[in-house]
Amino acid sequence: MPPKPNSRRAGFRPFWPTAAPPPKDVATAPVQAIQEKLENTPQETPDREEAKHAYLWKLMHNYIPADKESVQSSFVTHIEYTCARSRFNFDKFSAYLAASYSVRDRLIELFNDTQEYFISQKVKQIYYVSIEFLVGRFLRNALLNLELEDVYRESLAELDVSIDNLYTEEYDPGLGNGGLGRLAACFMDSLATLNLPAWGYGLMYSFGMFKQTIGPDGSQMEVPDYWLNYGDPWRVQKTSVVYPVYFYGRCEGSYWHPGLTINAVANDFMIPGFATDNTLGLRLWSSSPAEELDPEKFRYGDYYDAITQKQRAENLTSVLYPNDNSDDGKEMRLMQEFFMSSATLQDIIHKLKFFHKADIHELPNYAAVQLNDTHPAVMVAELLRILVDEERLTFRESYEICTKVFSYTCHTLMPEALEKWNVNLFEKVLPRHLQIIYELNQMFLEELRYKYRVNDQVVSSLSIIEEGYCKQVRMANLAVIGSHTVNGVAAIHSELMKQYVFKDFAELWPTKFQNKTNGVTVRRWLHHCNPELSNLITQVVGDENWALTTNGLTKLMTKLNDVNYCGEWAAVKHANKQRLANYIYETMGVRLNPSVQLFDVQVKRIHEYKRQTLNILGVIDRYLNILDGNIDGMQPRAVLIGGKAAPGYFFAKKLIKLINNVARVINNDSRVGDMLKLLYLPNYNVSLAEMIIPAADINEQISTAGTEASGTSNMKFAFNSSLIVGTWDGANIEIGDAIGNENVFFFGTKVEDVDDIRAGKGRKISHRLSRIFTAIQSGMFGENEYDVIIDSISGKDHYLCGQDFDMFIDIQKKVDEAYQDKDSWIKKCITSTANMGFFSSDRTISEYAEQIWDVHPCPLPRVVEGANGQAVVRQTKGKPGSQTVGSLRRHHQGSLVKDDVIPAAREAPQRSTAGSKNSREDGEDGGIPIEL
């Protein structure tokens, strides 16, 4: 595709903090004249402030140009001044850093202007709070969203630097692990693209979860993920944005004397939208000690104890999901969740008071806080504490504010996945918050008894406190009671959530519960990761607007009978398979044959309910059939499995070991050849997913019915024309509705039958499994140490692997048969991509914005130079980047451009240069964060 001219960031930047344009005399005057006026204006006068603003604007009145010379100049400047390398002698990693800093400069311009504009318009903002954000690499995503990849590619090529080589120099940020974090990252991309005013909030992990390697015996090995070892050019650490977070201590009545203070330091990442200038912020908190050293202990020579508090504070945000098999691990998790929650709320309230000069009662008019799962649920108790203890509101007033601010997304159907905290632990770490929770619970339960007249059994199920030998704080109940809306993430999940997980709550407050089916950003998961297919789609749709308004994908249906187009589609898939095969050979030494083998992929977190167990048993069955010569109709396959197991999850780690040892046997058996290969791809992350997903022919979405809330990998695969082998679970069902059930290989027990089967009605274990178990126990795949896996099936079979095994084998035979009809297969693949538009995260976010948050788009105006130097704003209607949320459902109809002189915007508070690092000690403005 020829490079496109970039015209979006040309012209004036917004002028004052109100985003008004510069006066004509400023816009047209030379910089020297503006400078002289500043020098001749008396200090500390209104005219002086205006002259200073004019001079500052004149110095940086244009966005950084996007021509080749400017890109090259920016690149070599960062090589020398930021990386401290010679312009004539630098390595590939330094080149990556310089290119990244060059792009970040442009993001910071847009980010600052976006934030100034949001403040000037006094808009309500979304605050999306998540314990993880699995963002993936930044460089290519930023270049593509900014429409700058072509100019950077050409500019750096003239300096003998390949932009493609720089992409692989970037470390995947260790800020997330699984679907929860990747969903949050997709949502941030959509929030920016839709011009919605928003911030993301989470934690800045030093080492992520862990880096997964596979040991000589096939076991998962966990090593620290040193992703920050060489710095991170995308992080902007705001050392002036610091909040104290308190733990432990004791309460005298309602007065809390904390025993430990840890500072939360802001680290900002810029999130650019696609085809818009709007650029949002992702603010992640890192921990630092309130005092570097204990001076008393240091003075008396107790150096070890003197640094203990410093190390403890810094360790708080070291790793994602500390192992909670120990009491210390549980305590660390609770502290992490509160640390994130408290710092985020302090920041939100600071913005309310400092930028909007608004009273705390107006918080719901300026803030919509989305709790992504139960990890940030403690925000409900923390906001109540702030309102009651610091703002001196009544408890009832405080609760009413909470329920106007918070909304909660439930991501599970399994009771064990709903967070609960031991009351004793909670009281130890957050004594005042437990008091608040008790008071909230008492108020709520009294209302249940006297207003709703519910019985004791219902009262017990709705209580925030779970009674019993070991009392527990139910965080999901706290989130439901403290929120105005609770949503599930797929149609079946939302219904099951109301029927089982929150049955009594749903009967009490039926209108509080909604469904918001998940989605994924098609920018990263199709347009960016599969550029050849993206170009093929653009040929049919006519432009790249399909990456924004996915309705255009349906035009692909007109090509189902176009033999040449179908051939091109198949060629793209083969090229992606070959690329992955090359990577596997280079990194693992196993040679695949993409021309012959069907690529069968299952990549996701390793868990019993996701049933990698069922998959590996199916692979063993296929292997034994090959040895027996039963290969009639069998399609050669390469089975690829990847994902991490939690360090303390014994079953999952045994399963990984079994998969690797089965792979070792199969891949070294000369009798098998290309008929079957099995690979376990270590350290599965976003970058690896971007290579695997476009290459997959089929993908396994085989969770036990009723256990997967939604799943999003199914959507990513389906967008990339990989057909789903799936159970009647999560979003699989809605995908089948969208693309046609005939284009999904459905199998397995349905959710309405699961409970009966678990109770013994109609339960059966496939007789085919006996020879598989015998092969495992005989040592065919190494030492017999897999009884925990075999017993889980031959015993209770809670996840129905034995029950569904025959159906799984039968559906795989249908896959083999279907794949061998190449023409029909390609039509299914195109049909999948063409009808997946509903599963764009843009659609999901537009529904959240309209039906939950009540927040509207606020696109950054494009200030350009009009006639006679007059600054005007170019409002673009109907083009990407300026449409309303509602227009996402309409097909792009062209554009209408209108030039208007910018009216004076509402006055926004001026930034102060005063402030300190402790908001509790510096007056009503809070002092610290004077940055946006």
From TrEMBL:
The keyword Glycosyltransferase applies. InterPro entries: Glycg_phsphrylas, Glyco_trans_35. This is Alpha-1,4 glucan phosphorylase. Coiled coil: none annotated. Belongs to the glycogen phosphorylase family. GO terms for molecular function: glycogen phosphorylase activity; pyridoxal phosphate binding. It comes from Tritrichomonas foetus. It catalyses: [(1->4)-alpha-D-glucosyl](n) + phosphate = [(1->4)-alpha-D-glucosyl](n-1) + alpha-D-glucose 1-phosphate.
